[in-house]
Amino acid sequence: MSLRYALLGLLAEEPASGYDLTKKFERVLQRYAWHAQHSQIYPELNRMSDDGLIAVVAEGARGRRTYAITDAGRADLRHWMVNPPDVIVVRNEFVLRLFLLSTLDPTEARRLLELVAAANAKQLDELRANVAAFDAAADPSAGLPLQRLVAEFGLRSFQILAEWAGWAIERIDQTEKMPTTDPDALKPK
Amino acid sequence: MSLRYALLGLLAEEPASGYDLTKKFERVLQRYAWHAQHSQIYPELNRMSDDGLIAVVAEGARGRRTYAITDAGRADLRHWMVNPPDVIVVRNEFVLRLFLLSTLDPTEARRLLELVAAANAKQLDELRANVAAFDAAADPSAGLPLQRLVAEFGLRSFQILAEWAGWAIERIDQTEKMPTTDPDALKPK
DNA sequence: GCGGGACCTATCGAAAATGACATGTCGAAA
DNA sequence: TTTCGACATGTCATTTTCGATAGGTCCCGC
Q: Staple partner for A96: which of A54, A69, A181, B33, CB 3.0–4.6 Å?
């Protein structure tokens, strides 16, 4: 049901077509929160429309249909938002690789971490640029909007991943220089 | 295919039965990296066995079958580990709620964040206790094992979530005290 | 005027995941 | 001795997701 609420949430912010929503998933949601392809999005929109949670508010060129959330949809979304499950369930192939890092030898683990750190640095830069543009356009006298708070969460997440990867690589290098075959390593204290 | 590699990775560390693996998923993997239930795990183990990636190495009471990874399995796992996809794809209902925070009014958003912060604090305490026990049992003269590095990542992740949630709640409170109807808020600079 | 790229929706078989139901064993405490 | 909880594996209908294929439109630059 999460896909449904992801779509409902995006439509609560502004009306959009299936195409728009697909792009938003690709650009934003996919990387942090939820992944879905258009082949899943279009049928779900039709079902949500049947269920009265959203409605077509405009039809444009190329068969474009713009949907907006209905009152029933808003109520349903709110209910979902304020009732989070108490067991959180995650699927993240990236973190899974980290968990299985110890199945690699230290040299390979190190190489994987460097790959990770590089990919992460690139994403951090992108996000930083987006946030900077957002801040420049924002009214400085107003408080930070909720969206900006979440962006901050993304920023901090990337930052600690970068820091951690660097730290982990350092540790691996230190361990490599201090092999257990070194008799000194066996000295107590 | 991620489930297959999650199982392969756990079996690369030590032989285990379907039951053992299910418990490991529940206790560890589920919260951070990958979720799977026993109804998915048992059939997958049978398929992996058919494919020669794992093999039954012991049979115990109550029909227990202990599996171990084969050389073919190890090769397959290694290949998967060192070839991460370049687009990372995530599914995390919790983060999805954060993204849709702006569909709530500030009061409700604040309440949700407090719920989140409390749940997170509990998880952080649990992990901290586990890590402390691990460190106490570890050989201090050896370098940090890779598993410990990953635990550190978990620790830091929880910590920044806690910090962020606190910060976000503060921001919301400040904004609430400074409504846009306040004429001062409209003054330039 | 035409070629190509962005726009836009759709379907469908296969694979993955869910949640409920099913069935039994072993050991320990009451 | 019986009962209860942990141990242990399985199936299956339904739902969700994937990946590929499909078909068409609008607009811009050459």
A: B33
DSSP result, A47-79 = HHHHTTSEEEEEE-GGG-EEEEE-HHHHHHHHH
As to burial, measured by CB atoms within 10 angstroms (0-12 exposed, 13-18 middle, 19+ buried), residue B5 is buried
User: Within an 8 Å CB–CB cutoff, is residue A77 touching chain B?
Assistant: yes
B43 CB contact with strand D at below 7 Å: yes
Alpha-carbon separation of residue A120 from B18, B37, B46 (angstroms): 35, 31, 36
pLDDT the model gives residue A87 = 81
Rounded to the nearest 5 degrees, what angle is found at the Cα of A60, between the Cα atoms of A54 and A65?
Answer: 25
Confidence grade of residue A146 (pLDDT, cut at 50, 70, 90): confident
Whether residue B160 lies within 8 A of chain A, CB to CB, comes out as yes
pTM, two decimal places: 0.89
Mutate which: A8, A100, A127, vs B, most B CBs within 10 A: A100
